[in-house]
Design brief:
Blueprint lengths: L6 H17 L5 H12 L2 H8 L10 H6 L15 H25 L4
Helix pairs in contact: 1-2, 2-3
Amino acid sequence: MEQLGEDEKAQEFYKDFFAYTNQNQSLYRDLNYAAYYATIGDIEKAIAHLKPFTLAEGYQYWLVIFLDQDPILNRMSHHPDYAPTIKLIRDNFWLRHKKLHRSLEEDGVI
């Protein structure tokens, strides 16, 4: 809406998304806060919420694939903690994936 010059309507959407995020108890809550704060330009708060997501488990594979391509999260890309945090999210995902794969092999499932 901002790109269309509808700043008031954009602010309404931001307010609604923030209210949704406050109620959200999913593992994506910090990621949603990071996106919200990146959108409104508060990069420090955005990074502060992105960092706890490095400890999250059980998120979708597609998230890892597209995380660094998200235009909203890329608003943080100039911050010195952004690239290392994205890398840690990705590395932790693949580490858990390898452990799960190994466990499934040991159990004869695959």
